[in-house]
Design goal:
The protein is of the alpha/beta class. The chain is built from 18 helices and ten strands. Helix 11 links the parallel strand 1 and strand 2. 44% of the residues are buried. The chain has a domain of 253 residues: Spore Coat Polysaccharide Biosynthesis Protein SpsA, Chain A, CATH 3.90.550. It has an eight-stranded mixed sheet with strand order 2-1-3-6-5-9-8-7, with helices on both faces. A two-stranded antiparallel ribbon has the order 4-10. Helix 7 runs antiparallel to helix 8.
């Protein structure tokens, strides 16, 4: 029986219990405990938020959003509920709903710069570029109170619109591809290998929990298996199979750079799926993977709010012009010429390199044409001189973070915290 009117101590205990259950991957138990908090402490929004998080972890997104809508009906414009609803909606491709929550937060906290940024992302994802432009000029919801000037996402959009309109179309096709009837695709004829990387050996428990979600998805979908590499096993693999990358790998000054180099080396020699070990699979991940694998084509990973490639996911074939060019450029890099900082991580083997390679390929192509892929959620196709390249995006195939916090993100193991001082 669920107890009504929890005491303060009981409330704190149930909340801690729910969080612990989430942390160890017992999402069904976390949901049951969160229900107790909702029923036993109706005066607070905490239980509703915990319930929604447990539902998201089980890929029950519509139920999670309905839970948060009910919480907002009871608690009006509760800032924490709005923030959670905005995050869930955006991470799972419900961009119009996320925009609504961001606008409501803007009314509550007009000076919240984080919400300004996320509202900008929402408008980019929904293709409402004029609204964003007006907002950046100081108009729109804030009525001219302040001017935000240049904005990276909007500047990326303007640059790509001018220099690579086919890429802009491919991004829009992918983000807007929400078919009424999603195709059910047979498993690949040959089981695939998903490679993941954790430099230090055995990942911490919370990271293992994320990786186990991929193991489960691949097994249930009859798609393939996960192969986890650490620094020692990756170094050995490179030495045996892609020795031209050995020098770069030995000079990598951060775990993230090791992972960046290894995934490129592996993709240059063998077909594979690469997924960041802290990325979280979504509702349509299995069908997207099966589609990509059955096409024998490479698939790249776009941000949902800007025509920009991430490198946290891809499906690769060694003969793909993109991966051939990427490998050729990366082999020529001498890390002795670069400072050991986060900019170097991004520019050498990271996302900036991927985007530069794509721009180079498009610049050399005589023809470029984008098209949607019928019946496959969140995917599009770009054809360059007859060669096909597929795209998906982060709100379709893999969120860049799970529905719970990872402890290592607050340490130097996160590339975003990399100091320019080699001693750090």
């Amino acid at each position: 029986m669920i107890k009504v009117d929890l005491s303060k101590a009981e409330f704190k205990g149930r909340v801690s219990q729910t969080q612990a259950q989430m942390g160890c991957g017992d999402f069904a138990a976390a949901l049951a405990t969160a229900e107790e908090v909702v029923t036993g402490a109706p005066h607070t929004s905490k239980g509703w938020i915990l319930k929604a998080q447990a539902l998201v972890a089980q890929h029950r997104i519509d139920e999670a959003l309905e839970t948060l809508r009910e919480a907002l009906a009871r608690h009006l414009d509760d800032r924490k509920v709005l923030t959670q609803a905005r995050a869930v909606a955006f991470a799972h491709g419900r961009f119009a709903e996320a925009t609504d929550y961001a606008l409501r937060l803007l009314v509550l906290e007009p000076e919240d710069r984080k919400n300004h940024r996320i509202l900008s992302q929402c408008w980019m994802a929904t293709g409402e570029f004029e609204k964003l432009a007006e907002f950046l000029r100081g108009g729109g919801p804030l009525g001219g109170e302040q001017t935000f000037g240049k904005h990276a996402y909007y500047q990326d959009y303007l640059r790509v619109r001018k220099s690579a309109p086919a890429l802009l179309s491919a991004w829009r096709y992918a983000v807007e591809n929400d078919p009424e009837q999603v195709r059910r695709i047979d498993p690949p004829a040959q089981r695939a290998t998903i490679i993941q990387y954790w430099s230090q050996g055995t990942p911490p428990e919370d990271v293992q929990l994320v990786s186990s979600a991929w193991h489960k998805l691949l097994e249930q979908g009859q798609i393939g298996e996960v192969k986890l590499f650490d620094r020692a096993s990756a170094e050995a693999w490179i030495a045996e199979n892609a020795a031209e990358f050995s020098a770069q790998f030995s000079k990598a000054f951060h775990f993230a750079m090791e992972a960046d180099i290894f995934r490129i080396a592996y993709a240059s020699k063998q077909p594979c799926i690469y997924v960041d070990i802290d990325a979280w699979p979504l509702e349509n991940t299995a069908e997207i993977l099966k589609f990509g694998l059955r096409q024998d084509r490479s698939m790249l990973y776009l941000r949902s709010y800007t025509p920009w490639l991430g490198n946290g996911f891809f499906i690769s074939t060694p003969g793909c012009p993109f991966f051939r060019e990427l490998a050729a450029q990366c082999v020529a890099i001498d890390l002795d010429d670069w400072p050991p900082d986060s900019d170097t991580i991004l520019k050498t083997f990271g996302p900036i390199r991927y985007n530069g390679v794509l721009q180079d390929l498009m610049g050399r192509s005589r023809s470029a044409e984008a098209s949607p892929i019928e019946g496959v959620y969140g995917c599009s196709q770009l054809t360059l001189d007859g060669a096909e390249l597929y795209f998906t995006h982060e709100a379709a195939v893999a969120s860049m973070k799970p529905p719970f916090a990872l402890d290592y993100k607050a340490t130097e193991a996160s590339w975003k915290r990399k100091s320019s001082d080699p001693a750090n």
